[in-house]
Batch of 2 targets.
Target 1
Amino acid sequence: MKQKRILLFALVLVLLVSVIGVGTFAYFSDTETSTGNSFTAGTLDLSVDNQNPLVLHMTRSNLKPNAPWSHSYGGQWILKNVGSLPGKFWVEIKNVKNLENGVIEPEVESGDITSGPLEGELGGLMYAKWGENHYGIYSPAKGWTGNVVYNPLNSIEGVKINGVVLNPNDLFSAYLDIEFDTHAGLIDNTAQGDGIEFDVVFHFEQIVP
């Protein structure tokens, strides 16, 4: 009798396990697979005057005081976002060097007592102004805050001039105006024959949300 109970209990246990097993695998199911997923980084790239990298440089000679505005010294750069992402540019002037280029008689008579190769006076007698050129090119990105005068030119060293946002394919015309300071009475002969050199650095940065 005891053996029959054990056998019956074992049979019930087997049937119970079978029912549980059948219930575990009896649900409906479906599987969907997304294939061919691809991720590509965007690009942030600025061209200047259709050059990338930029190799253009300005060379101006025979600078003189009281030149008419139409003959002001400087240069224009056409900036374009050739990447796939919007970005904001900013610009600065670096590595300003005032070249003495020798001391001639008018300089000496004006009190120029410096003669070192990097002791020229030209950067102290000229001013610089960044501006947006509205003439000759359509600039979709308006509102540059760079219209600030730096007088003298030497004081613009390393100053960050904020630009504007350029979306892909946007153009912007930035103009650097450089002139003698004719308003402060500083024009004299100490800068005759002197020169000035500097780097113009355009930065283009991702817009952080």
Note: The two ends are 81 Å apart (CA to CA).
Target 2
Amino acid sequence: MSSTINRRKLIAFSAAAGSTLLPGSRAFAQDSTPAASPAAEPVALDEATTISVGAVPVPHGEILQFVQDNLAGDYNLTIETVEFTDYVQPNTALDEGELDANFFQHLPYLEDFNEQHGTELVPVVPVHIEPLGIYSDSIESLDEIEDGAVVAIPNDVTNGGRALKLLEDNGLLTLDPDVDNPTVIDIVDDPKGLEIVELEAAQLGRSLPDTTISVINGNYALEADLTPAEDALALESAEDNPYANYLVVREGDEERPEVVLLGALLNSDEVRGFIEETFEGSVIPAF
């Protein structure tokens, strides 16, 4: 899995968000990991402090940019964003001490990463939900899917299972009901004989022309110039959805003043308004 890292201090961007949902969505049970406590009111730091945060560019980098441009300076905080294009390197860099925090992942992914890599990374505050969506360049409705259609899904464990659940919710297959986080081997009925291809999440937008449908993470859909609330053939529901994206730090760093402050700013009314006004249903505040 490759990554492009561009170290720079955020100075200007834009953003996106809202809550329009399409039919055929799934209401997920809450994840077993306790949610982090809501952020407190922001309190200015005693001295100027820089915090380095790993993020994917859209929408996470854009949200951090908004905070940097409009809020952070009033509290003696500077956000230095390190941009990544995959879902592995931001956690590796955080664990190795190259970052103070990261902002790109939901709790199921974080739990699985900690288990697989022996890391001790913890959530601070939830910020937003990016509904997973089904997209196509060749059809306009899921009713048009033919037998043997090529279906691409993310190849990481948590998002792959999430994608399969969305396909099930839209009547394309049936999963073993006793499996919480299914893989392709847990498909018990596939009436159309779908050819399911597992790809790195970052590749799904670019490979869309080669598939009948692709199940794409919200940030990568946005990077592919797709508007989830308009272009998706189906979207997840935001109700009881455990896939809120969190600010994350190493265990023991949760109470560092700059971390607490950034969490408070990310959960501010200003950030909520920015998300809602910019992303128009493609990204949804989770606080």
Note: The domain at 133-235 is CATH 3.40.190.10 (D-Maltodextrin-Binding Protein; domain 2).
